[in-house]
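Form 7-S
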Amino acid sequence: MSRPKIGLHVSGAGGLENAPVRARVLGGECFQFFSRSPRGGGGAPIRAETARSFRAACRRGELASYIHAPYYVNFASRNNRVSFGSVSAVREELQRGTLLGVRHVMTHLGSAADLGEQVALPQVVERLRAVFDPQKLGKVTTTLLLEISAGAGGIIGDTFEHLAYVLTHLRRRDVGICLDTCHLFASGYDIRTPEAVAETVRRYRQHLPITTLRLLHASDSTFGLGEHKDRHAAIGDGALGVDTFRHLLEHPDVRRVNFILETPGTDARRKRDVALVKKLRG
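Output:
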């Protein structure tokens, strides 16, 4: 069986080249970070020296790296300034990731609260197509992942059906999926037993090729199954429990992708979470 890398989300404060260093200190074998403020504003240009230092630190630590797109991305907004601004932001993240040698950028798709699902889904596809405008994007090596959402407030992308619709109509083999354990559970996909994991994977395969699964975000969930509330918890401190992550790591379709922990808490607690998941991996 394949052996996934276990890592976590870290800060890029003080310089993006610090992110891989922080990841190694916390025991990460891979890591995720924001390349700009997740709340708003443009990203400062990435200097050549920063990119060299970042790449060198990743090579030394044998670290795979990932960027999370800003939280404000909403391809489903009725407001063109928001939806096309999201296009620019995600396109820029792919370009920034390429400078840094990052493997994937992951993004949420947004909320259809002001449009409705039937109108929003085709719009999401069109905005994603605009991300890949070759005249504006240029040559990139970083690829895009669509992250499943928790399902509150008319969210697009909280079901396998939504994700399949987008990938089918986008028609790009380089775009994949990032599953998040808290979001999955919040959206009604149970993963607490081996049987539940097998059933959720079966449902995924009904709609999407398993090869589209490229990354897993791992955290416990403060709220229960199908409550559509996105509140991450430390491993073992929520409704999922420690054994959930053992079951995921035992399923061959899941354990072939890397795990990025998005757990809250102090660095000491997050370091313990990484060590625990490594232990579960065997």
